[in-house]
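Fill in residues.
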């Protein structure tokens, strides 16, 4: 794709995307060859006897399937100062830190210039398809993005979140300008040290540039919902800042204050207009288009664990479309949303075949097993079948070889010769006590079924998570809810029973019937509990940008479990199987 971001041509990008996806098998072989040649001298590839070969057959025969645990000894060498080619041909100067949502601990993952180039390729392709459906004019974007300060690991090596590494890269600013995605907030706000102060200033900048805002975005849908829930509480303070031209004393960081003071001038007319807009809304429905009349859509990751936030986001968005961002992880990118008009719940992503080498393990097929070690034998990108579910294996330029990403996807069709993927769930996020196996998606469907009951009371679940309680025999599922109001005992008992009945896994149902799994427990939390969880994650070095509420609280999340347990106001036990 285009090397010079300054001369971005959306139609050319789409044509190049079509050409790449037309002969995906050839592109995949070339991509693997390039990755292996660039890293041919690494300790990792030498150790498994690849000996410079670059064909897929030799690669699969020599290199094992791995997860992050297998790579930790090699990454530890880099962290401790080994500048030899351990897993990458070039020295690693930056590490990305994962969110730690799945396993409760953050992972170090190499971040390289080539990985940044892949990121820009994805951004460019995504914008080209998006802008074809929702053309935007010259202006700015209200982006709720937050860049943490990089941590110095040692001389010559820093670590930060994957998003921070992207935002701080020298090419980021020009790239955003070229695809008409320039943030309305100063970079001092994006990289400010205090989340609450930065969020306040993001909202204030959006209001100051309200007529220029072309779209609203964040990395995850949760961040947009959190931002506008916060707006409901502070909008009058924001109006006062605009009216007086003086920044709130709540903003204490010197660099943020300096940057924002340059933007603020007394503007009573704008303050009055915003006050009238907010006062005229019913339950804040349509807040975003009321504030930002030129906005064309909302953009962010909206699949998987983000789906529960979509009803509230739609409430704020009114008639504005929600556009799901592309498919990737802290480790790297995988696929692009080429059909931005699709609802986020059913969006498909087309694999970009030149950003990595991809393999797929059939999720439920136990027949395709390797005779040597009993391992399921993965298949190639163009060999997948429509309707089947797979676990993704990635090989990318930043030193990950046959890496089990831990995601389960469903193939829904093909775009030229590249598969369209629908995200199903994280492989490791399971509620299980004995023979039962319920995924993140099963949990989400169970909660959704119950929330229909409280919707009749004009109530909603702000956020939720789960836990397997084995402190008593038999063990049982615990679902934590934070709500925006109170419901009657009868309604809450009905919600509890509904969730219990909604877990349809055969192992769960049979275990509940014979009482080898105890009654499901619904624990209602104090208002603001999940904000305390967010604050805890930020205190531990995480960023709001990558925050995702863990949907299953295991032993590795013991501090989060303590926060939740200390804020329970009421518990209900299911009688669905009595």
């Amino acid at each position: 794709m285009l090397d010079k971001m300054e001369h971005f041509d959306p139609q050319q990008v789409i044509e190049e995307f079509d050409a790449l996806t037309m002969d995906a098998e050839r592109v995949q072989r070339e991509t693997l060859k390039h990755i292996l040649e660039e890293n041919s001298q690494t300790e990792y590839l030498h150790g498994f006897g690849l000996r410079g070969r670059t064909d897929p057959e030799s690669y699969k025969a020599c290199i094992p399937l791995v997860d992050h645990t297998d790579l930790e000894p090699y990454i530890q060498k880099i962290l401790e100062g080994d500048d030899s080619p351990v897993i990458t041909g070039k020295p690693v100067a930056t590490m990305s830190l994962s969110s730690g949502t799945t396993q409760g601990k953050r992972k170090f993952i190499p971040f390289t210039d080539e990985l940044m180039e892949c990121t820009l390729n994805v951004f460019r392709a995504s914008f080209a398809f998006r802008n074809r459906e929702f053309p935007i004019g010259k202006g700015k974007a209200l982006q709720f993005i937050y860049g943490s300060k990089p941590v110095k690991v040692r001389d010559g090596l820093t670590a930060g979140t994957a998003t921070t590494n992207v935002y701080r890269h020298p090419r980021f600013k020009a790239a955003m300008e070229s695809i008409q995605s320039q943030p309305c907030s100063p970079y001092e706000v994006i990289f400010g040290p205090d989340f609450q102060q930065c969020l306040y200033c993001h909202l204030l900048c959006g209001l100051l540039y309200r007529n220029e805002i072309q779209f609203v975005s964040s990395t995850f849908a949760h961040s947009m919902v959190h931002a506008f829930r916060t707006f409901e509480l502070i909008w009058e303070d924001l109006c006062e800042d605009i009216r007086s031209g003086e920044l709130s004393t709540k903003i204490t960081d010197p660099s943020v204050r300096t940057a924002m003071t340059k933007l603020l001038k007394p503007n009573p007319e704008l303050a009055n207009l915003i006050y009238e807009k907010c006062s005229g809304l019913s339950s804040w429905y349509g807040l975003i288009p009321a504030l930002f009349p030129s906005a064309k859509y909302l953009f962010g990751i909206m699949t998987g664990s983000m789906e529960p936030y979509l009803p509230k986001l739609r409430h704020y968005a009114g008639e504005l479309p929600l556009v799901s961002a592309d498919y990737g992880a802290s480790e790297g990118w995988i696929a692009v949303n080429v059909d931005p008009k699709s609802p986020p719940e059913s969006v498909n992503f087309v694999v970009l075949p030149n950003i990595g080498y991809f393999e797929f393990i059939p999720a439920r097929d136990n027949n395709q097993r390797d005779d040597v070690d009993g391992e399921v034998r993965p298949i190639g990108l163009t060999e997948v079948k429509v309707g089947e579910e797979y676990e993704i294996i990635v090989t990318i330029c930043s030193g990950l070889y046959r890496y089990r990403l831990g995601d389960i996807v469903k193939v829904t069709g093909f775009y030229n010769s590249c598969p369209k993927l629908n995200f199903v769930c994280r492989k490791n996020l399971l509620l299980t006590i004995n023979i039962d196996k319920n995924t993140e998606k099963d949990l989400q469907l169970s909660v959704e079924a119950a929330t229909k009951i409280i919707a009749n009371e004009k109530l909603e679940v702000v956020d939720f998570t789960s836990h397997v309680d084995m402190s008593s025999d038999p063990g049982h599922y615990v679902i934590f809810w934070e709500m925006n109001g109170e419901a009657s005992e009868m309604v809450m008992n009905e919600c509890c029973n509904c969730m219990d009945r909604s877990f349809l896994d055969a192992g769960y149902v049979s275990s509940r019937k014979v009482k080898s799994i105890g009654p499901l427990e619904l624990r209602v939390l104090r208002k603001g509990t999940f904000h305390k969880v967010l604050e805890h994650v930020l205190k531990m070095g995480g960023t709001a940008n990558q925050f995702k509420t863990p949907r299953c609280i295991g032993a590795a999340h013991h501090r989060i479990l303590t926060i939740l347990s200390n804020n329970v106001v009421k518990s209900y036990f299911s009688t669905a199987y009595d």
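The chain has three domains: 11-91+357-426, 135-320, 440-573.
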